[in-house]
């Protein structure tokens, strides 16, 4: 019987030398490796959602910095574009990132209408896209696409939880007030579904154009509607003004919502006290990930973290999972998508996973605004997934 020894033969040494020489010459793959990955950030940096876009950006930068500036061994170069929350400019803005700047990945955006414009372009181009906020239901339902993942929520999810809570409390009739685009109208549907599931009913929806803040004509109608509660979708600057005007109008019915008090409590002040909202995050969530995240975010951004920051962070965490699985070789699309679909992420919001329609499955918390914090007071819906109706992947 012959035993192999570990002693190197001349042949081995020559092979070793050749391999060393070869490894000094960059191969096609090594050159591709060396190129930084371009990640386009298409977000609102102006207008009513500007702070949302900023917080998403801070948190993405934070995660990349925590990983030493590289994801899956590839350096990351961010290319930022202000989408101004203007749906009419969305296809052209997306084209700029995808065709002119040739981004490898697109992270965007906040506004559902803008998202629909992005979606049209990236479904064609196949660009890996991660949504850090916009909830447009269709994106992970009938129009779902293998290259599009959402790290935030669907417009249906959170208000569904809020409706469920009210219905269980015995609320029979409620109204909804919002801007008249997908984030508001689809949220109304979710709110109505939640209410209906627990024996209540959504009897009236009032809307105004995005991003208008001429709330008085709507507020004047509310007391006449015969409802016991009012739900609303406004966010950012619009939410600050709505909550203040609702309080000033002296309306008796309790006001509730999803994003209504998120990232806005300082500006809303006493007017927000006691408002209940259902959302996939809360200020006081006491888990080690959230505690570390909030501290790091405050250090970086000089402001408190909110759900938008969490969603930005998780968008980057999800991208990291995909790129780490293929060691940065983003050309291996199947490998990237497979890893992202199977991702189990430790989010500041709690553990999250990805649904078959590439949407986050998470708890919807019930929160109450108290002393400048959205305090978690219960769970409105546990491990809630969007139904993903009509999505075949
Ligand atoms: C949306 O347009 O989908 C949207 C915008 C702001 C939010 C939530 C949803 O806070």
What summary fits the major beta sheet? 9 strands, mixed
Report the radius of gyration as a whole number of Å: 24 Å
Annotation field: number of helices: 13
Poorly predicted regions are 1-26
Q: Write the H/E string, N to C.
A: HHEHEEHEHEEHEHEHEHEHEHHHEEEE
Small molecules bound: P-hydroxybenzoic acid
What is the residue-averaged pLDDT?
A: 93
Describe this structure in words.
This protein is an alpha/beta fold and 393 residues long. It has helices spanning 10-24, 28-34, 50-66, 90-100, 112-125, 157-168, 182-197, 216-221, 236-248, 265-268, 288-301, 307-325, 333-341; strands spanning 37-43, 70-71, 74-82, 105-108, 128-131, 148-150, 173-179, 201-208, 229-233, 255-257, 276-279, 344-347, 350-354, 360-370, 373-384. The strands form 2 sheets. Strands 7, 8, 9, 10, 11, 12, 13, 14 and 15 form a 9-stranded mixed β-sheet that branches. Strands 2-3-1-4-5-6 form a 6-stranded mixed β-sheet, sandwiched between helices. Strand 14 and strand 15 form a beta hairpin. Helix 4 (90-100) packs parallel to helix 5 and helix 12 packs across helix 13. The protein is globular. Mean pLDDT is 93; it is low at 1-26. P-hydroxybenzoic acid binds next to loops.
Put the structure in a nutshell.
With 393 residues, the protein is an alpha/beta fold. 40% of the residues lie in helices and 22% in strands.
């Amino acid at each position: 019987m012959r035993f192999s020894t570990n002693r190197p033969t001349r042949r081995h040494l020559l092979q070793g030398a050749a391999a060393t020489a070869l490894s000094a010459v960059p191969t096609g793959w090594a050159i591709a490796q060396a190129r930084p990955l371009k990640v386009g950030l298409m977000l609102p940096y102006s207008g009513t959602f500007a702070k949302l876009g900023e917080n998403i950006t801070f948190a993405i930068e934070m995660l990349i910095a925590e990983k030493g500036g590289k994801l899956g061994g590839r350096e990351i170069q961010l290319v930022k574009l202000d989408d101004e929350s203007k749906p009419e400019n969305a296809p052209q803005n997306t084209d700029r990132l995808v065709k002119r700047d040739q981004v490898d990945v697109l992270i965007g955006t906040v506004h559902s209408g803008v998202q629909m414009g992005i979606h049209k372009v990236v479904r064609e181009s196949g660009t890996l896209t991660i949504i850090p906020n916009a909830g447009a239901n269709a994106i992970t339902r009938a129009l779902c696409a293998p290259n599009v993942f959402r790290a935030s929520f669907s417009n249906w999810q959170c208000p569904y939880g809020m409706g469920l809570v009210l219905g269980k409390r015995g609320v029979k009739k409620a109204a909804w007030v919002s801007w008249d685009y997908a984030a508001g109208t689809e949220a109304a549907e979710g709110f109505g579904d939640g209410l209906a599931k627990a024996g209540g009913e959504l009897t009236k929806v009032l809307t105004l154009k995005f991003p208008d803040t001429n709330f008085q004509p709507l507020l004047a109608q509310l007391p006449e509607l015969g409802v016991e509660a009012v739900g609303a979708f406004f966010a950012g600057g619009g939410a600050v003004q709505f909550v203040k005007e609702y309080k000033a109008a002296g309306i008796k019915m309790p006001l509730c919502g999803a994003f209504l008090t998120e990232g806005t409590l300082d500006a809303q002040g006493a007017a927000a006290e006691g408002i209940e909202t259902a959302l996939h995050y809360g200020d006081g969530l006491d888990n080690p990930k959230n505690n570390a995240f909030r501290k790091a975010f405050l250090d970086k951004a000089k402001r408190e973290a909110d759900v938008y920051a969490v969603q930005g962070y998780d968008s980057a965490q999800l991208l990291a999972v995909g790129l780490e699985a293929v060691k940065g070789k983003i050309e291996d699309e199947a490998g990237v998508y497979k890893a992202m679909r199977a991702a189990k992420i430790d989010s500041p919001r709690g553990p999250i996973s990805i649904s078959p329609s590439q949407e986050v499955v998470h708890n919807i918390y019930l929160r109450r605004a108290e002393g400048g914090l959205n305090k978690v007071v219960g769970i409105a819906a546990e491990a809630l997934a969007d139904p993903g109706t009509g999505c075949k992947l």
